[in-house]
Amino acid sequence: MPGGRQILVRSQDALSDEERRRHERYMQMAIDLLDGCAPFSAVIVDHESGEVLCHGVNRGRENRIYHGEIDAMINCRNQHPDVDWSKLTLYSTAEPCPICMSALIWNGIPRLIYGTSIQTLTSFGVIQIGLDTATVADAAPFYSGEIIGGILHERTDEMLKTWWDARMSGQG
After folding, report:
1. Terminus-to-terminus CA distance in the chain, angstroms?
2. Which residue in 71, 89, 115, 117 has its CB near the most CB atoms, within 10 A?
3. Which whole-number Å values give the CA distances from 169 to 64, 73, 92, 165, in the listed order?
4. Is residue 44 within 8 Å of residue 90, measured between CB atoms?
5. Calpha distance 44→30 (Å, rounded)
6. Contact assessment for residue 158 and residue 120, using Cβ atoms and an 8 Å cutoff
7. How many Å apart are CA 68 and CA 46, to the nearest integer?
8. Under DSSP, is residue 128 helix (H, G, I), strand (E, B) or coil?
9. Is the Cα dihedral 153, 158, 163, 167 positive or negative?
C-alpha cells in the first residue's frame, strides 16, 4: 500500500489467548457501563500503559448522533486535552456506525475493538447504515489501523437483541 498504509482486520478467532483475555477485560468494562440506556458503550484505553482514560454511553435521546463512541471521544478530549491519540484503543460494544468510525479516523485512533457486528445488528432488525468499519477505514487514504471484531460478541449480541426486542414490543 502507498506510504505504508495498512488496515488490518482480524476476528477474535485470530488472537492469541493472552490477547483475547486482555481485550475481553476492556470489553467487559464497556458492557458494565450500561445502566438503563441503549446498550451501546465505549471505553478508551492507552494501549501502551493499559490505563482506561475514559468511557462513553449512548445518549441518543439527547441527540441522535450522541453515540457511545462519540461520547467517549468527547470525554477523552475534555479529560485529557493533550492525549496522544495514536496510543489509544477504542472498545465498543457494537461495531461503530460510519459517523463514529469517521470520528475515530479523524482523531487518529489506530485500534478499534468491538463486540457485535453491524451485520448482526441488522439481522436483529436494528436500522443501520450498511457500511462496516473496514469499508469506512479503507475510504480514508491517510488512515492506518487495526480492527478486531467479535470480542465477547455472545454477551453483546444477547444484550443488544434483548434491548431491541424490548424496544420493538414497547417495553424499552
Report:
1. 46
2. 115
3. 21, 32, 26, 6
4. yes
5. 9
6. no
7. 18
8. coil
9. positive
How far is the C-alpha of 138 from the C-alpha of 145, rounded, in Å? 10
Question: Rounded CA gap, 34 and 36, in Å?
Answer: 6
Cell numbers for 28, please give them: 467487559
Instruction: Quote the strand ranges of 1-60, DSSP E.
Output: 7-11, 41-46, 52-57
Q: How far apart are CA 158 and CA 155, in angstroms?
A: 5
pLDDT at 1: 42
Q: Cell numbers 441527540 label which residue?
A: 63
Neighbours of 114 (CB within 10 A): 28
Q: Are the C-beta atoms of 76 and 103 separated by less than 8 Å?
A: no
pLDDT means per 10 residues in the chain (172 residues)? 77 95 97 84 97 94 92 98 98 98 98 98 94 97 97 96 90 63
- Predicted TM-score (pTM) of the model is 0.94
Q: What is the dihedral of CA 129, 135, 141, 147, to 10 degrees?
A: 110
Give, in order, the Cα–Cα distances in Å from 107 to each of 72, 85, 172.
12, 7, 33
Which three cell numbers mark 67?
Answer: 453515540
